[in-house]
């Protein structure tokens, strides 16, 4: 059992992402301390008054693991000078929380380049940097982008291991570090496959039952990378279709206002998603195509496909291996045609389903977590890397 300090860039009590699945798989076998940001808005809503100003709050993850939620500066994302102050001061707050659990860790595992200073603040034996996104793409301010890139480059060069989630990211970091492991996103295949195997298990959600016409779905964060203009255009072109958008909005959705066939639910609990997947046959990933999204391995596509749903998506490089089990579309005209075809598509043949689930099997979270664990194990095994057969990574 190793002591692992895992610092992530998102709130733990948010929609489930890659970090949640890895933590669930690793926590039973390690002494795991998770560091996560916590917005003051959530603290005010979820914690008693006397905890609002405490350095961190702690919740158990299991018998020997815990999450420390460390408050961010209020409203820091709205002003560049507050962003800079957040990046400068947050590592010290995270480090204080980390040291409350252990004076030293076997592994310091960072998934946010703005937390790179933790490498100097928390004693550790091995340093891992996990890059799951083109982080600079989240920021419009060029000075913030440049500063973040500089922090990331320094962290990648210093790390004992860099874990990436896409080919694009792998190529970027291979020139900075000789030890890069490409481990993409995935799903709990059996969990979502229950949608196709036992649809009667999942009654239709009440809000979905009230919607008219064929329903086309999307779930996930509504950020600037989601092409809301495309969704609005499709809604205007096909007023008989209803577009179901499940998830929190992190950008303005004003462009969708006034369109009666747009239904936004806000975030839904994870355990309710299968009900929506069961009763909506077509799901989408309507991302803008840019440098940021070309580096993305969208987790939700594996969930859609494990549920045996039809999928239409922006052509993202990481999804090429899943063709022909999904459809690519770029222009509004191509999207309209692809969605119309998906809505009347027959069930997958037994051979197509077998091929799909063979590919998804390599993306099961249990297997992906074991690969992460193996990569970390190698760091503690002298000369093990030199014994690996060529091409094994």
Structural summary, described in words:
- With 393 residues, this protein is of the alpha/beta class.
- It folds into 2 domains: 3-186 and 364-387, Glycogen Phosphorylase B (Rossmann fold, 3-Layer(aba) Sandwich); 189-361, Glycogen Phosphorylase B (Rossmann fold, 3-Layer(aba) Sandwich).
- The chain has 16 helices and 14 strands.
- The chain has helices spanning 18-26, 40-46, 80-99, 118-121, 142-158, 167-174, 189-197, 206-209, 228-237, 273-279, 291-294, 299-306, 332-343, 350-361, 365-379, 384-387, and strands at 3-7, 31-38, 56-62, 65-71, 105-110, 124-131, 161-164, 180-182, 215-219, 242-246, 262-266, 282-285, 310-313, 327-328.
- Strands 3-4-2-1-5-6-7-8 form an 8-stranded mixed beta sheet, sandwiched between helices.
- Helix 6 (167-174) links the parallel strand 7 (161-164) and strand 8 (180-182).
- It starts with a strand and ends in a 6-residue tail after the last helix.
Q: What is the element layout, followed by pairings?
A:
Elements: E1 3-7, H1 18-26, E2 31-38, H2 40-46, E3 56-62, E4 65-71, H3 80-99, E5 105-110, H4 118-121, E6 124-131, H5 142-158, E7 161-164, H6 167-174, E8 180-182, H7 189-197, H8 206-209, E9 215-219, H9 228-237, E10 242-246, E11 262-266, H10 273-279, E12 282-285, H11 291-294, H12 299-306, E13 310-313, E14 327-328, H13 332-343, H14 350-361, H15 365-379, H16 384-387
Parallel strand pairs: 1-2, 1-5, 2-4, 5-6, 6-7, 7-8, 9-10, 9-12, 10-11, 12-13, 13-14
Antiparallel strand pairs: 3-4
């Amino acid at each position: 059992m190793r002591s692992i300090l895992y610092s992530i860039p998102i709130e733990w009590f948010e929609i489930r992402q890659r970090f949640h699945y890895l933590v669930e798989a690793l926590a039973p076998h390690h002494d795991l301390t998770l560091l996560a940001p916590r917005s003051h808005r959530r603290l005010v809503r979820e914690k008693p008054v006397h905890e609002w100003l405490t350095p961190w709050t702690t919740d158990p993850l299991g018998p020997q693991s815990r999450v420390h939620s460390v408050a961010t500066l209020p409203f820091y994302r709205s002003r560049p000078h507050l962003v800079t102050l957040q990046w400068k001061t947050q590592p010290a707050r995270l480090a204080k929380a980390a040291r409350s659990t252990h004076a030293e860790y076997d592994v310091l595992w960072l998934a946010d380049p703005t937390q790179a200073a933790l490498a100097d603040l928390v004693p550790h034996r091995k340093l891992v940097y996990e890059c799951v996104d083109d982080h600079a793409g989240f920021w419009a301010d060029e000075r913030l982008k440049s500063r973040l890139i500089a922090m990331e480059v320094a962290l990648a060069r210093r790390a004992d291991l860099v874990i990436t989630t896409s080919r694009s990211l792998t190529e970027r970091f291979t020139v900075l570090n000789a030890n890069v492991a490409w481990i993409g996103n995935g799903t709990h295949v059996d969990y979502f496959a229950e949608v196709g195997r036992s649809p009667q298990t999942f009654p239709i959600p009440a809000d979905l039952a009230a919607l008219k016409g064929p329903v086309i779905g999307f779930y996930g964060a509504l950020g600037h990378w989601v092409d809301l203009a495309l969704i609005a255009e499709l809604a205007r072109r096909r007023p008989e279709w209803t577009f179901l958008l499940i998830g929190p909005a992190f950008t303005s959705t004003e462009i969708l206002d006034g369109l009666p066939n747009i239904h936004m639910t806000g975030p839904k609990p994870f355990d309710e998603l299968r009900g929506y997947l069961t009763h909506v046959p077509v799901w989408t990933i309507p991302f803008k195509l840019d440098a940021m999204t070309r580096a993305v391995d969208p987790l939700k596509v594996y969930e859609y496909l494990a549920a045996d749903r039809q999928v239409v998506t922006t052509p993202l490089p990481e999804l090429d291996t899943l063709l022909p089990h999904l459809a690519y579309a770029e222009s509004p005209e191509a999207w309209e045609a692809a969605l119309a075809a998906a809505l009347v598509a027959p069930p997958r043949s037994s051979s197509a389903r077998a091929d799909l689930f063979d590919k998804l099997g390599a993306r099961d979270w249990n297997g992906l977590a074991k690969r992460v664990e193996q990569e970390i194990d190698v760091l503690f095994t002298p000369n093990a890397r030199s014994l690996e057969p060529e091409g094994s990574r």
